[in-house]
Amino acid sequence: MATARPVVSVYNYENPSEKAGTLPMPEVLTSPLRPDLVREVHKNMSKNTRQAYAVKQKAGYDTAAESWGTGRAVARIPRAPGGGTHRAGQATFGNQARGGGMYNPTTVWRRWHRRVNVTQKRHAVATALAASTLPPLVMARGHRIGEVAELPLVVSDGLESVKKTKEAIEALKKLGCAQELQKVIDSKKIRAGQGKARNRRYRMRCGPLVIYNEDNGITRAMRNIPGVEATSVDNLNLLRLAPGGHFGRFLIFTEGAFKKLTEIYGTSAEAAPLKKGYHMPRAAMENADLARIINSTEVQSVLKAKLEAPKTHEPKRNALKNKAVMDGLNPGALKRKAALQKSSEKGTSEFKAVQDKKKARQAESKEHNKKHKKGDATFYKTLMKAFEAKAAEAAAKKEEEGAEEDE
């Protein structure tokens, strides 16, 4: 409420460049915004125009069908009686059968309508009116208000006496609604679904809503303009103020209707004169700047000190699985491993060095064998000599034992 403008300009409908005066801002237009309340009330109110629908109670069961029983190699579902037609012998009654009854048939005694609390409806209307005075919310709803002088837009009472649609269109264009009217015309589309065959073939966007005090011909002038609606300030309906449950519709007030808002809804200090026992909604917070409140010295001085995060230790890592840890414990491990891998890749300098070293080792081995392992000095012959000496000892021992026995 502290940021609301104290006065609103009244524009002459014939020449909007001239201001006919100013009016104080009604307090209902500074009501707190409750989009949740608007959605809930709109959802329930929109259900109250539904018509009941249901299938006929006997649909699918209006035949003297009986089951053929067992023994005829057919299912035991009831079958239509008679003969000589395709219908005879066909399955009936079951919801899986052609021409049978539906599962869980619809009934007319369903709970179609919803009762809505009167105070909630009034609060929702007050919220929708307040949202329509804020350009960001009106633009977010898709209205083209770039050429509109100010919001809320209040026009002199002469607009209520306009009787011709041509004059009404001219007046709206002078007020800056040309883009809005063109947007509505361009949005005309064929409706999706069966509604196109039920006398509601086309659909289009909502345009401005003109709110008047006395109908001196304004409804007749506005009723044929696409998207434009006119309603009395005494009969404000949430379904028109917030179509689809989204507040922020572009509203155009006449001077008399704007004055009457205070008489209808009252002020924050007084009850509404024309609505028995109704008081305007109050904001949950006087100052909605929550960050400023929390960071203020008064609040911060009584709060506990900020808790420090507990100290954490890095998890132990296995050096055999983690290359970085292994390189830290064993410097050069990664380089040696990379060199080992390259030593098996043909075409690399490491591979050539390994092969050269292998050839040198083999040549050195051959040279050693030629020099030190000739004739009886070879490994095999040296090994066999050991066996021969052992065999000779065994043979000599056996001969001695044989000689002793002969004696």
Indicate the overall shape.
elongated
Order of helices and strands: EEHHHEHHEEEHEHEHHHHHHH
> Roughly how much helix do the residues carry, as a percent range?
25-40%
Give the beta-strand count: 8
Count every helix, treating DSSP H or I runs of 4 or more residues as helices. Answer: 14
Unreliable residue runs? none
Strand content: 5-15%
Pick out its properties:
407 residues; alpha/beta; six-stranded mixed β-sheet; two-stranded antiparallel ribbon; 8 strands; 7% strand
Model description:
This protein is of the alpha/beta class and 407 residues long. The protein contains 14 helices and 8 strands. Helix 1 (35-45) crosses helix 2 (118-131). The termini are far apart.
Topology record:
Blueprint: E1 7-11, E2 19-24, H1 35-45, H2 118-131, H3 135-140, E3 153-155, H4 165-174, H5 178-186, E4 189-190, E5 202-203, E6 209-212, H6 218-222, E7 229-232, H7 238-241, E8 251-254, H8 255-265, H9 290-294, H10 297-300, H11 323-329, H12 333-342, H13 349-372, H14 379-406
Parallel strand pairs: 1-3, 3-8, 6-7, 6-8
Antiparallel strand pairs: 1-2, 4-5
Helix pairs in contact: 1-2
